[in-house]
Amino acid sequence: MSERDRQGVRRLHADGKSRNEIARAIGRSASTVSKIAREEGLVFSGGARVAAATEARRADAAARRELLADEALDGALGQVARAGGAETARDARDHATAARALADVHARIAELARANGRASTGGSLLDKLADVLIGPDGGDGDGG
After folding, report:
1. Measuring CA to CA, which residue among 113, 2, 9 is closest to residue 64?
2. Residue 143 has pLDDT above 60, yes or no
3. Is 129 helix (H, G, I), strand (E, B) or coil?
């Protein structure tokens, strides 16, 4: 590695070029550019493009979680309706168990959204459904 390579890496890094762009520009491998950068105390954070792509991926994941939460809540409500119209006690219990499992999925997703600052708007409805299905004490009482 020559001083010219080092200067090129410093200059192109200051211009906001990526490691691979610098490697092409100076005719060296990406690993050589990484080594020079490390020795020079330079860091490749990925820049604005990576930050934008990461934020887009996070937003997409949040939207998909919201959809999953909505579908779980809809499924739980459907199971509650089926439990009410069940022909046998066993069928009613099975529907209620499925409703509880789906409500738990919704609750976990909603908690994840709250922890990430992207709370679901369905939380209050979930609370009402959970109170109906498992009681306000979360099902930890003597009756569950």
Report:
1. 113
2. no
3. helix
| CA atoms of 11 and 17, how far apart (whole Å) | 9
Dist CA 109 CA 56 (whole Å): 19
Task: Say yes or no to pLDDT of 58 above 70.
Answer: yes
Structure-token pair, residue 137:
């004490």
How wide is the angle at C-alpha 12 spanned by C-alphas 7 and 51, nearest 5°? 140
CB 133 within 8 A of CB 79: no
- Residue 87 has which token pair? 């022909």
User: In this structure, what token pair is assigned to residue 23?
Assistant: 């490697």
Instruction: Please state, in angstroms and rounded to a whole number, the distance separating the CA atoms of residues 16 and 9.
Output: 11
- Cα distance between residue 49 and residue 107, in whole Å: 34
| Residue 14 binned pLDDT confidence (cut-offs 50, 70, 90) | confident
CB 93 within 8 A of CB 101: no
Query: pLDDT tens-digit profile of 76-103?
Result: 999 999 999 999 999 999 999 999 999 9
DSSP state of 87: S
Q: Summarize the confidence of residues 19-28 as an average pLDDT.
A: 93
pTM for the whole structure: 0.49
